[in-house]
Amino acid sequence: MRTLFLIPFLLVNSVFASQQIVYLDPSLLTLDAGASFNLTVMYDVSDSDQTLSGIGISIHYDSSKLDFSYSDIKYIFENNLAGNPLIKDEDVDRSDEDESTDKVIVFVWADPFSNQWPSRSLPLRLLALQFTIKKKCTSNISTYINVTDTTLSAGYDFQSTNTSVNILNIKGDINFDGYSNIKDVLQLLEYLITHHY
Fold first, then answer.
1. Neighbours of 104 (CB within 10 A)
2. What pLDDT shows up at residue 136?
């Protein structure tokens, strides 16, 4: 008879497993080609436990549409940060299951001995990242920034919210700065004057 009660217990335990949550804010953007934007990476835990062993995450993006470098990391929660962030080519298995992304930024926070991470009020701001949309992106396309886990605290599942960026290409944006304004008119006049025969 004990076996009959054990199976439902295991199923309930699995369905309601606690989760480490990472979400990108904002989750939706509509911007002009050439524009820069800030992305906040937030951390939370479904059972509000502030004393875990850490987490490892990867931020996936499409480098044909977005520029990013180490200097674009504007803020990082440094408590138990394991080494420096790593920007690298995406692995063949594409853990975000998105064929359009090709680069990842990897971050790991680890406190394996005392299990006191992050010891801060939740939700917690982990990162502030700045991306720049390439100036020559064609109009009316979208690109995605996804977050996946690389390591989790024991007994926890992962939950995430990604970001979708809708890219516009403004008519009249002659200098490709992401805006249509007087600077474009001046550049056009300069071109006409210097190329007048």
1. 23
2. 83
The residue written with tokens 């939370």 in the block is 44
- Structural domain boundaries in the chain: 19-171
Task: Please state, in angstroms and as integers, the Cα–Cα distance from residue 179 to each residue in 11, 122, 131, 164, following that order.
Answer: 54, 38, 17, 21
Give yes or no for a contact between 137 and 169, defined as CB atoms under 8 angstroms apart. yes
Q: What is the dihedral of CA 191, 193, 194, 197, to 10 degrees?
A: 120
Q: Which CATH class is domain 19-171?
A: mainly beta
Q: What is the pTM of this model?
A: 0.79
Per-residue pLDDT tens digits for 103-139: 999 999 999 999 999 999 999 999 999 999 998 887 6
Query: Nearest 5°: CA angle at 178, between 68 and 75?
Result: 35
Task: Count CA atoms within 13 Å of residue 60 on its CB side.
Answer: 24
Query: CA-CA distance, 35 to 8, in Å (whole number)?
Result: 52
